[in-house]
Design brief:
mainly alpha
Length: 216
């Protein structure tokens, strides 16, 4: 019982920390843009990259160690060249590419779609209707993040900085939330004969799911 309670507390703490990070990061970036403080962006980039590199090395993750090493080196190089503002454009592209790959790789032949894996955590083995639906939702998420990648690149190349910031630091988060809401309502309509979690319980399940493990 104590172990279960401790696990629940860690899950709640994880959700709170993720929520705080998702709020602080875009607000921090947008304020840096609004007040023309590129050094704040550089400092955050270098700090996050250094922490990520240390954690990756301690856990023996060679690929992640290489990634954070490259990010840290890039940050130092851009800082020394005085082009720190360019660091702004990378995270939205990299994050959406990573999420696109996490979902998309589970659509390959012989793999189980990611949404099906999440659904099976609560439902157990899925019937054919649920299997088909969860595969289609996985495809939809993959396409969604691919569009986010394209949007981030197009805005970085052609839009004013404040418009890029408005989309990548605010509107894109709203788009993700709307996707969840629309998909949940569509699920109720398309699968009326199946039991469904409440929207709150569904969001909790998604938030506490380790996508890195499910995406393997």
């Amino acid at each position: 019982m104590r172990k279960t309670a401790s696990s629940n507390e860690r899950s709640k703490l994880k959700i709170v920390l993720i929520a705080i990070a998702l709020f602080i990061y875009p607000a921090f970036i947008h304020l840096s843009v609004a007040f023309h403080r590129p050094l704040l962006i550089t400092g955050m980039w270098l700090a996050a990259s250094a922490v990520g590199l240390v954690v990756a090395i301690r856990r023996g993750r060679a690929a992640w160690s290489l990634l954070f090493g490259v990010l840290l080196t890039s940050g130092i190089a851009l800082w020394s060249w005085g082009d720190a503002i360019d660091l702004l454009y990378l995270p939205p592209v990299l994050i959406n590419i990573a999420l696109m790959v996490v979902f998309g790789r589970t659509l390959l032949s012989g793999a189980t779609p990611l949404v099906a894996r999440i659904a099976s955590l609560w439902r157990g083995p899925l019937d054919p209707a649920l299997s088909l639906y969860t595969r289609r939702v996985t495809i939809a998420w993959t396409v969604f993040f691919a569009l986010m990648v394209a949007e981030s690149i197009v805005l970085a190349l052609f839009a004013p900085l404040h418009i890029w910031s408005l989309f990548t630091n605010f509107l894109n988060y709203i788009f993700v939330l709307l996707f969840f809401v629309v998909e949940y309502q569509l699920r109720l309509i398309r699968l009326p004969n199946h039991e469904h979690l409440s929207f709150r319980a569904f969001c909790h399940l998604v938030a506490t799911t380790d996508l890195r493990t499910l995406g393997r």
